[in-house]
Amino acid sequence: MTALIEDIRRFYLRHGRRGPIPYGIGCAYARDAAVHRAAYGSGIRYFDTSYNYGKGESEEVLGQFVAGTDRRTVFIATKAIVVPVRLSGPEAAALVRASLEASLGRLRTGYIDLYQLHETTSLHQAFGEDGILQMLQAARREGLIRYIGIGTASHEVLGEAAASGAFDSILTYGDYTPLEQSAETLIREAAASGVCVVNGSPLAGRLISRDDPRSLALTEDDHRRRRLPAAVAYRSWCARSGVDPVGFALQFPLGSPDIALNLFGPASLDQLEENLDLLAESFEQQAYDSWLRWYRAWSDGGRSGPKARREEGSDHALS
């Protein structure tokens, strides 16, 4: 077990009758520090944000909460500004250093537990003389950050980062849910190499909610469009099966032993309370078996993902 994985376990959610639960919150949607304070009061200790969530607004709001909290009792993860690919390694390092220093100010803290590169499409600026990684390693020696990670949509980049041994964590999002598990191989291989895997967006970027996913105003270039048919089919299966779509999706990644932590992103106090209550409940194995039958029938006949390797009736950690 790596130091980061062991460390994160101290900050798992403890709420209701279950616990500890490997969950924290993503702060992309919360625009009121009251959400963070309520989350803390309900047992949340891991908070993930980014400069890119509102150009620092999310960090500012989280900083309002951090300023009034015992810093030792929370784990703060944030992400750097997205680095333009045209920059050289040293130029990129300087930009990320400035981003780090600005984040420290907005978050009102002297150090960040996990500092992550964000939406990186290539690692050429990270490696090499005077590149981003050298700068972040220096920042770690200064005590400004404790761990180094990366969160991006590209499985290829995440896989390269995990294999390099230079990153403590990878963050993938929206691709290990009841709708699809395209990140399963990445997650398994990264965990096998000792890298901490963080799974974001278990609700598939709000495709899974109380509302019909077809009501979302998705632009042509929105990456969620390709998952929309699966979201509609999943909603129908839940209705037929009497399964809560949000609760099942939140608990679905708990079945993976390779995911160190999951993140849900409440926008309001009501969403926070609902999601916490759903995580405090449990699903019977038969709910997972029913999902597995639906997924096999709906997708590609059981040729990929967990549907090929797990058998109906096998123990799945949804309870």
Automatic annotation (TrEMBL):
Residues 35-290 form the NADP-dependent oxidoreductase domain. It comes from the Bacteria. InterPro entries: AKR, NAD(P)_OxRdtase_dom_sf, NADP_OxRdtase_dom. This is Aldo/keto reductase. It comes from Cohnella hashimotonis.
